[in-house]
Structure formats: C-alpha cells, structure tokens
Amino acid sequence: MTDYIRDGGEIYRHSFATIRAEADLAILPDDVAGVAVRMIHSCGMVDLVDDLAYTLDVVEAGRAALEAGAPVLCDANMIASGITRKRLPSGNEVLCTLSDDRVPALAERLGTTRSAAALDLWRDRLAGSVVAIGNAPTALFRLFELLAEGAGVPAAIIGVPVGFVGAVESKEALIERAPAPYLTVRGRRGGSALAVAAVNAIATKEEL
Amino acid sequence: MTDYIRDGGEIYRHSFATIRAEADLAILPDDVAGVAVRMIHSCGMVDLVDDLAYTLDVVEAGRAALEAGAPVLCDANMIASGITRKRLPSGNEVLCTLSDDRVPALAERLGTTRSAAALDLWRDRLAGSVVAIGNAPTALFRLFELLAEGAGVPAAIIGVPVGFVGAVESKEALIERAPAPYLTVRGRRGGSALAVAAVNAIATKEEL
User: Fold this and answer.
1) pLDDT (tens digit, 9 = 90+) per residue, A127-138?
2) GO terms for biological process (chains A, B) (predicted)?
3) Quick one: pLDDT at residue B68?
4) B11–A144 CB contact, under 8 Å
5) How high is the ipTM of this complex?
6) B18-34 pLDDT, tens per residue?
7) Chain A residues with CB-CB distance to B8 below 8 A
8) Which chain B residues are within 8 Å of A43, Cβ to Cβ?
9) Which chain B residue's Cα is nearest to A77?
10) Which of A143, B68, B133, B141 can pair with B75 through a Cys bridge, CB separation 3.0 to 4.6 Å?
C-alpha cells in the first residue's frame, strides 16, 4: 500500500511550509499573507497571490468585528457549511438566507437571481458584519445596490464570486468602489472554498 | 448603477457558451465534456481540461447508479451541502460521515485523519455508490485501503482532493489502480466545488 502522511497537523504544517516556500508572499502585509496561505491551501494554486486585491485594513477590521460578535453573511450554503465554527472567536452566527422561503418570490419581484434576492434578507444585519460572497456575481452587485440605498456598511467584505458572467466585473467594481474593507481575487477565479478559507483565516491568528 | 445580467437561466447559458467556445473540449467524449463544462464553470478555469483524467464509462456508470438509487458518499460537508438535490434522479441519499460522533475515536485508533477515518463508516454503503472525494487526499488513500480489504466497489469515483500534501500522489494512484470508473483532475487543483460540479453534472443530462 502506498505510504502517505496520516497526521492532520503534520499535513497542515507541510502544506503551509510548501506554500510559504513557493508563493510570492513578500509583497503582502503579514496579516494578508496569512490569509493568502490559507486561500492557496484551499485551491492548490500558489499563483493566486498575483490576483489578490485588498485594503490594508481588511484582516484587522474583519477580525475585530468577529471578536465583537459580528455575524458572517454568506451567499451560498457551501460557504456556511465550510466555515470552521471552532475558529470563530465569539460563537458568531453564520447566516445564509438562500434557502429562505421568502427568496423565490423576492427574486421574481426584483427580477434577479435567488442569490441576489437573498441579500435583501441581510438588510438589518449588514452593519458591522463580515460578508462572504463566494458564488454569485449577482450577489456582489446586489450588495452594492443595498449599500447605495443606505443599508448598513459591513466591517469587511470577502468578495470572491467565480465564473464567466459578471465575476470579473463585480470584483473590479468592488475594488473601484471599496465600500468597506475588502479582499478579492481579480479575474474569473473564486468560489466557495476561497471564501471559506479567507473567513477561517481572518477568524483567528492560529494557523492550526 | 452598473448594469449586469440578472436572469439566472441566461447567466448559465452565457457561461456555458463561453466555456464551450474557449475550452478544448473536442478531445473529450461527449458525456465527459458535459461534466467538464460544469466543473470549469465552478472554478473559472478553462484549462482544467488539460488535467482531466477519467475512464470512458464514468459518466454512464455514475448516472446509471444514481438512477438506480445509489447514495452519494462525500468526504466533506461542503460537498454534501453543494449537491443540488433536485438534480438527483431518485431522491438519492447524500452522505457525509465526517461529523459522526464515532469519527474522532476511530481516527485516533487508526492513526489517521478524521477525513480518512470517516470512510470506515461507509463500508456497508460503498458497493454501487457514487463516491465524491473533493477535500482530503487521506480519504482517497483510505478508500484504496478499504477496497484492498474487500469493501464493496463503488459504481463511480469522483476523486478530486486538493492541495500540497498527497493530492497529486493520491490522484495518480487512482489513475494507476482504477479500482472503479473514475474522474479526476491531475495535479494540485481540486476541491469541493469541483466534486460538487461533477456530481451535479453526472446526476442528469439537463444542463439547467
């Protein structure tokens, strides 16, 4: 039988050491580098660094918000499922409203996707929250609309929707507007695993 | 406000058309190409095609198993969370045993990760199942061990663990052994989203 490393802690340490040796992290602030390591770990691509865009305060702002008990608002159930609860510093609520019974009718009324309509149910929770959008570009666009309408401003926005329609544009709009401290990945790459990795990294300084 | 496409169906159609225009799908069998489109859609990278490895019967075998009511066995809760239930043809069970109370003690006894130990709870369900491993290389290695010990053979294996320790090796071992019809992505790339996309594509011929 093939021999392989079976110790979870050792696997993490080897993985993170390989990433730190290969990825060009020197250009990043220390705390963002820590987040980048975890994001790279989740996708297997060290060149993800080249596409990272962020505000210098995003990790500090996100972590402070979580320590103060802020909820994490996710656009996809996969993200809510992937966030490691024991890394969250204050037993923070992790909320995804996509499956809420009100969403289909809301989507029809707004003439948009369910992913975007689901954000309307975040309206009262947005102020000071940590937003994690890793699936739908329409959700990120909808966030800008809600903020333009006067919704409360999040403490930090992890905005990494993925794909071929609107992903590039929504993330460039996030960079241009910067309505709050943010972290994103330019281009088509993105997804739930990257959003989860970013939240798990921001949640605590502990690597393991 | 930025204009953007808000119609979910139109977003899918545009996305899939872009992928079919850009990705080198001609080298793939038709049914595998359909799965590749969905996997590319989930990660934003058309060059994923270059790393696909598979047996010619994997889509047919996986779909037939699901139509006959086979369960989907997942190594990560994110995968179980991401599989679109209404695409499954027979109300199939989607099972992830990672959070089972017995797993921590099992992992300690076996001297392995919880992800790998969780597979021991699949033992009686493996025969004829659709396996979706998208996170832990140790889970894929453990699957080989269970099969070597005489566990029932799955109908199809989606084996796309991600990362820097064991991912490459476990997937090369899958290709070399081919213990059942399989689909994998060579190299470090992989993850829950790719596993979910593959299962969602295999589940039904319907694209939308």
Assistant:
1) 999 999 999 999
2) cobalamin biosynthetic process
3) 98
4) no
5) 0.96
6) 999 999 999 999 999 99
7) 113-114
8) 162, 189, 191
9) B81
10) B133
